[in-house]
TrEMBL record:
Sample GO molecular function, one term: antiporter activity
Pfam families linked: Na_H_antiporter
Alphabetical UniProt keywords: Antiport, Cell membrane, Membrane, Transmembrane, Transmembrane helix, Transport
NCBIfam families: antiport_nhaC
Major localization listed first in the record, in broad terms: membrane
Sequence ranges assigned to domain Na+/H+ antiporter NhaC-like C-terminal in this UniProt record: 162-450
Annotated protein name in UniProt: Transporter (NhaC family)
Record has Cell wall biogenesis/degradation as a keyword: no
UniProt keyword annotation of Transmembrane helix present: yes
Organism of derivation: Natranaerovirga pectinivora
Length: 464
């Protein structure tokens, strides 16, 4: 193949071929046959590779597209596996059951949803990890909320809202660091500018969750179920102040800016120590739980389903989907097909409002069709940088839009890695909890309105 062909950008019509394949196969597999989205994305990646090869790209270029994309995500994939281990060990060691047990005593039914929103937001800001928050507080919240008679989708949506809201405002979050770095915007300038849209979103969500909590819990509290739940936890786990050691240590390490991977590993090790020393389980059980997760049989189906989870193996479905999605997005990016589609959309960005709306829409579409929130931030950032400069807008306006459209909508898409992770941990389909994940979609709307109403759209560059 000639090098001249390899530097050409495919037309938008050619670039849309793999996306059409993904749309058709996803519709068939997910919505009609109720199958996993892996094969649809695999066929999309294969179609993207074949399309690029026929257009003139070499196999080396195509291969580098998916290998480079996967290479960048390896730390995140390792974190996924560690989170799987920490979920299993923290349940087996009694940490999560203790949170559920005391949560029944502390959390009032009518105030449960707003309380969970605040707790998840704080945890996520401190740790910088929405996934860690979902895997720990989220699991406990599902157990407590169901005992209080609150539907699981509402609980899951609240957990996701708080976890991803806090993640966006945390200077330790990988995605929050990535987004401004793409456009050379200062991290704290980026976070401060996001407050204009995320704080109103949080306040509105807090009010709505309060009203929703009152409506959902009216006359529906099952006190017998709660008492039975607490009895089962007492019968199967030893409750001790030592159970606070692993989560406290993890939070402390992250506050001292220790990277996520070693901090989470400390959480796994301390959880194993508690499991053996306090719960009286064997080292052999600890190693098996690390891989296969924790299982329990209490005779109560709902409790068994809630507490039987975790382990490295539980994350394989998420990791495999992430690898395929990264391959698909990497090929589309490396072979300039995504660039072609985004450039085609540039004619819609003549006004500030349309520019912000197009940025949001592009990020959401990339979240859907590449199933990769990092690509949903990186590519539109690179593509629309000159457009924002041309309209005399500071680039922090762009980074805010990228977070609103790219990062916050990722957990609402069933085949996106974030959506699959939440599904695997909380057992609630993203399409079911999405209406309740208020902050995730409301922030996107607020950012778009700010663009059209010219609110906090700070100027700096002369119009070009």
């Amino acid at each position: 193949m000639s090098s001249k062909k390899e530097i050409l950008t495919p037309s938008a019509k050619i670039a849309l071929i793999p996306i059409v394949v993904v749309i058709v196969t996803l519709t068939l597999s997910v919505f009609i046959y109720d199958a996993q989205p892996h094969i649809a994305l695999f066929l999309g990646a294969a179609t993207a590779g074949l399309t690029a090869f026929l257009y003139g790209f070499s196999w080396d270029t195509i291969q580098s597209g998916f290998t480079e994309s996967i290479h960048r995500a390896i730390p995140s994939l390792i974190i996924l596996l560690i989170i799987g281990m920490i979920i299993g060990v923290w349940i087996a060691s009694g940490i999560v059951p203790a949170l559920i047990y005391y949560g029944f005593n502390i959390l009032l039914p009518n105030w449960f949803l707003p309380s969970i929103l605040i707790l998840c937001s704080i945890m996520s800001v401190i740790t910088g990890s929405s996934w860690t928050t979902v895997g720990t507080i989220g699991v406990a919240a599902i157990g407590v909320g169901q005992g209080l008679g609150i539907p699981a989708p509402a609980i899951a949506g609240t957990v996701v809202s708080g976890a991803f809201f806090g993640d966006k405002l945390s200077p330790m979050s990988d995605s929050t660091n990535l987004t401004p770095s793409v456009l050379d915007v200062d991290l704290y300038v980026h976070i401060k500018h996001m407050l204009y849209s995320t704080v109103p979103s949080f306040i509105i969500a807090l009010i709505l969750y309060t009203l929703l909590g009152i409506f959902l819990t009216e006359g529906s509290i099952d006190t017998d179920f709660i008492a039975n739940y607490q009895t089962i936890i007492r019968d199967n786990f030893t409750l001790s102040p030592w159970l606070l050691l692993p989560p406290t240590a993890v939070i402390g390490l992250i506050l001292f800016k220790i990277p996520a991977i070693p901090s989470l590993i400390v959480g796994v090790v301390l959880g194993g120590f508690i499991q053996v020393a306090i719960q009286g389980q064997s080292v052999n059980e600890f190693f098996h739980i690390l891989y296969d997760g924790f299982t329990i049989s209490t005779g109560e189906e709902e409790i068994d389903a809630l507490l039987s989870r975790g382990g490295m193996a539980s994350m394989y479905n998420v990791v495999s989907l992430a690898l395929i999605a990264l391959a698909f997005g990497g090929i589309m990016n490396k072979c300039k097909m995504l660039e072609s589609i985004v450039l085609k959309m540039s004619k819609f960005v003549k006004s500030t409002g349309n520019l912000v709306a197009t940025t949001l829409g592009t990020s959401i579409l990339l979240n859907i069709f590449s199933a990769n929130q990092y690509l949903a931030v990186i590519l539109p950032g690179q593509m629309f940088e000159d457009c924002y400069k041309g309209q005399g807008l500071k680039l922090k306006n762009l980074t805010r839009a990228l977070e609103g459209g790219g990062t916050l909508t990722a957990p609402l898409i069933p085949w996106n890695s974030s959506g699959v992770f939440v599904y695997s941990v909380l057992s609630i389909n993203p399409l079911v909890y999405a209406p309740y994940a208020i902050i995730c979609w409301l922030t996107c709307i607020i950012v778009g309105l700010f663009g059209y109403r010219d609110i906090t759209m700070e100027k700096s560059y002369k119009k070009e």
